[in-house]
Leucine-rich repeat-containing N-terminal plant-type domain-containing protein (Oryza barthii), 85 residues
Amino acid sequence: MADLLGDPTWPQLHPRPCTDTPWPGLQCELAPDDARHLRATRLHFGPDVATPPCRPGARLAAPVLLGLPHLKTLSLFGCFVVADC
């Protein structure tokens, strides 16, 4: 998320994003095999998510997605654009 949001400190500031981060772009579900664990199942970045929106020129590397094996939905709006020079 740090690469999409442009904030390298985001993981340190929000070590438990499923429970301690009131961010509407993240949805988590209880693991069916262990109710003590939450899994990130939905990520949404865009201008409608006020804090923080996806930054222009964001990066999304394949290993990031491999680290989210339970992700069901990923929506990105207004990302990966380069401002005119």
Remarks:
- DSSP finds three helices and three strands in the chain.
- The mean pLDDT is 79.
